[in-house]
Amino acid sequence: MSKGFLVKKIFFLIITFSCCIFGIQAQANILISKQISAADLVPNVGVAVYDIEKQKLVLGINELSLYTPASLQKIITAVFVLNKLKRGYTATTKIYKNKQGDIFIQFSGDPKFSLKHLKTLLKSFQGQSVGKVCLVDTSYQLPLLSPGWTIAATQLCYGALTTKSSIGGNRLVAYVTAGKIGKPAQIKFKKGQVNYPIINQTVTKKLCYTDPSVGWMDQMQRDNIDMTRKGLVIKGCVPHDFKNFKVCLPIKPDDIDYYLKKAVGQAFDESKVLIKKGIFRACNMPAGAVLISSVESPLLIDMIKDSLKDSDNFVTDSLFKAAVDIDESKFPANWSFAGKVVRKELNHLMGLTFTDKDLKIEDGSGLSMYNRVSAKALSQLLAKMHQKDSGFYKMLPRAGTDGTLTDRLKSVKGKIWAKTGTLNGINTLAGYIVKNGHPKYSFAIMINGPTDQLTRNKNLIDQIVRSLTDSF
User: Model pTM?
Assistant: First the structure.
């Protein structure tokens, strides 16, 4: 075989291979475009696929348009936090004591800190009395609520306030079980909660009306549940077959001081430590105070897994603020400048050049409707992250296996690891397409559309994902 013939043969094979790849990508683009068109959502859907090895966009549909990402924002936060704080980072809550016998609790923004942990810190004081109890570094700058959070978010468990001095996730969990017909339901707090009174105004019935078309509804609704300083108030009709119905409520912004003092007081009481002079917030650490005990949070990598697999907003926003607080120590973390700090750091850490045309950040969890990101930018970020950390993809939910994808995309189990996102009118999914046990492509699919089409939108995303796994 002549050298010239061999060169021509290799050139022919390269051209043929390139044409095949281009053909596959073109076919996928056409197929997915048809699927979107059939759903009549062309202006509202963005799709991007990135080749990780080549760091190149290989498929794009409205890929430059900005969309509200919902919980896909957690991917952005995770990449920032993991590269800023490193996997082995822990938040450490400490107790100090001064010569006057006063106690100083220095909080650290640990999103997993609980009453149980606080009582662990108090073991060495059991059976003793102390002067005053001061809470140090109790909050980040106001406002506690991020711009763009909906009213619904502030009323439900997933919208708990992110404060540096969090205890028990700044929320309360209770369970409602039907009683005998004609009697109140049984309401019990989850073990380890702060002790609030339960104001039970429910009634158990054989049948509760739930259809507005009949003119009224008496079944227990969200509006019948409230968390105030007076206690947990639950009203309404409870069907006779209700069992362990979970009620989870965040502490309100105006009540966070009250809640924290109540939680600290309870921990001291249960630890048999007498407080003589009261509990105070926003104290400064005095010179000469001696460290008595400390408790560390779980490792950062484990908290990130919680935030991604189970889509935990409180954990994500806590880590988001902690990382920004460390980065900008002269200016305690607040929402107003955090987004710009995070984007600047992402560009520096990941070698990117994102601008307002690619990414706008308002919070860490994605609860804000003002977050914006393009499908291209998100898929590019995922591709960059895999090059830097080849194990990152395993922190995302695995299709048909765990997290928010436990019961979804089972037909592509083992081929897709991705984060879901859902808000009012918003469905999103982003992650990795895995081939031969390794991520080959990163992708992002984003739908911002009608608020009454969430099921259809989710089904369309799943359809697009199956097309991508078949095509690439």
Answer: 0.88
